[in-house]
Amino acid sequence: MKFQLHTQFPTDLEEKWNALLAESIHHVPFLRYEYLRNWWNTRGGGEWDASSRLALVTATEKDQLVGIAPLFHNTCEDNPSLLFLGAVEISDYLDFIVRPADLSPFLEGLLRFLKYDPKIPVWRSLVLHNLLESSPTLAHFNSMSTDGNWRIESAVSDHAPRIALPGDWETYLAGLDKKQRHEIRRKMRRLEEAEKSSRWYFVKDEDNLEEAITDFLELMAYDPQKALFLKPEMKTTMWATIRSAFKNGYLQLAFLEIDGEKAAGYLNFDYLNHLWIYNSGMNPKFLTASPGWVLLGYLLRWANENQRESFDFMRGNEDYKYRFGANDRFVYRLTVQPANS
After folding, report:
1. Which domains are delineated in the chain?
2. Residue 106: pLDDT above 70?
3. How far is CA 228 from CA 49, 193, 221, 262, 321, in A?
């Protein structure tokens, strides 16, 4: 394998990048070319400062792209580090982009390249955030824990609950706790039978997208913590992410309206026959109608009826996720350091 360092985002790799991702060890929307390019343009919505430098590495064999290490360099607390593009806050799952058969030679060659190539910025730690527990990358590095050339540490950083969907709404409900099943049905029925009119829908018309994004971010901002999160740089990132997901056909932006006013919204990725639940917002004016809960119920019913395989809540162990039937998984932070550093 031939390795090459990119200090500017490679504008000619989009098609090859996404084609390789489709065959990679971990195919998630956060690793798509357009997502990580948007992320880098704002350094994760302002999470990282302008001193960060791109250190993206590609690997080729016989002029064919076989691996991508989407990395950047930052000095974290006086510890010069290489990190995944997308780290840490807004990209739930990250990994290297490489086919399973090429993983071992790719990682072994990558470590040599990062350690010895003079063009690589000086670093002490390779810090890999948001690796899902099933990632072959995690397994590969953990198997190197006795390698005297490298120090390997891994630790759980968050929960990642997910619902495996049976493909039938009633079967899904039957698998829930009896009390929870009753609550879902009761709240959905109560809204449907209320005097106030209600409807829920997906945003499908590009002409309505800009207004819908504005409305969704306003719903998010009703939550004080999310209002602080939505700084100007983060809004720029959110706009770009939503637009590119729409353009590439995997955006699912859903709203629940009550009396013609948006009461709740969900921003999801409908990707690879799975639903990835990314963010949400709710107008507290409609709190008594439980609009967030009801819209989540509608989305789960839709996902079952449309044969989606899973409903991935991604990072965070909020109680409601488990009440809707999610089972726990975990994401890890992996740290790799040269033994002599």
Report:
1. 2-156+330-338 (3.40.630.30), 162-323 (3.40.630.30)
2. yes
3. 18, 36, 8, 21, 23
